[in-house]
Amino acid sequence: EEAKKKRHIVMVPIMAQGHIIPFLALARQIQHTTTATFTITIATTPLNILHLQSAISSTSPNQIRLAELPFNSAQHGLPPNTENTEKLSVTQLVKFCHSTLSLEAPLRSLISRITEEEGHPPICMISDVFLGWVNKVANSMGTRNLTFTTCGAYGTLAYISIWLNLPHKKTHSDEFWVPGFPQSYRFHRTQLHRYLREADGTDDWSQFNIPQISHAMKSDGWICNTAEEIEPLGLHLLRKYLQLPIWAVGPLLPPAVLKGSRHRSGKESGVALEACMEWLDLKDENSVVYISFGSQNTISASQMMALAEGLEESAISFIWVLRPPVGFDVNGEFKEEWLPKGFEERMRDSKRGLLVHKWAPQLEILSHKSTGVFLSHCGWNSVLETLSYGVPIIGWPLAAEQTYNVKMLVEEMGVAVELTRSVETTISGEEVKKVIDIVMDKEGKGKEMKEKAKEIASDIRKAITEKGEEKGSSLRAMDDLVRTILS
Ligand code: UDP
């Protein structure tokens, strides 16, 4: 009992769905990995606790505890009950980031309480790269601190190095070198989000990102949601840059995805799921483009129009998850006027396109044999999911580290083409059609991309599979991580 008490891990994700879910997956994976009993506590704000409670109770019983960190968004000039990045404008998002600093005091109380109850501080705190301040808490309370970046290694390195060095500010050229990458590597100004392009070290974004990343770089090691086989370059460079141990334990995805079998979540078994599956069942193998920009992002009204025109001009079948364009509530009501006149009806009548509003069962769609390519914003979870099923990508990055993910998918992996980037570009239906034609081509580049994507899917499976004595790289990294935590 005494030994058990010593093994308490406290996890602190930033309050965004794309971070909380991988943190929960990491917690589960730690418990799967070892016979040593850990108590794992995920500490977050009340509304996020509610979501986590339902996510946890829907699966088998486990040892994951939830601890509430009181949070009052209104005190930070945000709408009441804002506890998640979803629905926030860019201006609100930076305020939200700064507001997370207010969690330090409640987190200190939680650690004190645990220390008092158990006679020891927790053995480890695993914190989000955006909550670098947790490192100060861990240091002063005698606990080890590891950073979990829910992104890939390449994207993480580009993201942190560009913020810390602001290399685009040191040149007038559109292209620039990013410290940490080989000298021959070039990034482009258009790969930077507007607020990063304008950052100068004193603006609100810099004032949050730079110190948080710097603190996180003082932690005892980093955990990445990726695998050695799929990101050899990214992991090599990140290790060199951070000079810290890095454990590539991913991809942390639902178990069905990892087996490569057709995914059935059960949870999403609503009309959308049935409709999507029935519709896909009628299509030929690899013939459908699945289009989604994730849970937080959306494109501009004129881009949406061009995308619809391009889809209509190419003879392609598609599933498109529709959200209102930039400037409107992403989760709000969709209006017909945002699409070409009669588009929805024509697509429905011809069964060419399935338009899904707000949310689609992405894993089920990607795992269906009719799905041939994913037009994606390249959020890291979407990237891992599509690669796990061997589905190549048309990239249209919009925010965060997505442009860097696409660069890697194109240049290092050869599984993607980039259609355009950001919401600021003007694109035409012809460009859309051209890219779709390339990727859907059963010969040439389209074929090559498909083969590479299949290879990566097989690498991913190897990384997370155990065959007799032999364990895949991500499982070995997980063993090593647990050993380190226990040491
Ligand atoms: N997702 C989904 N249906 C949708 C949109 C998103 O199931 O219509 C899921 C998707 O499978 C992924 C996550 O939401 O697991 C999105 O994470 P990602 O990192 O790709 O992008 P973000 O939403 O964080 O920008």
From TrEMBL:
It comes from the Eukaryota. Keywords: Glycosyltransferase, Transferase. The keyword Glycosyltransferase applies. The keyword Glycosyltransferase applies. It holds the Pfam family UDPGT. Its EC number is 2.4.1.-. Residues 9-254 form the Glycosyltransferase N-terminal domain. GO terms for molecular function: UDP-glucosyltransferase activity. It is an enzyme of class 2 (transferase). Belongs to the UDP-glycosyltransferase family. This is Glycosyltransferase.
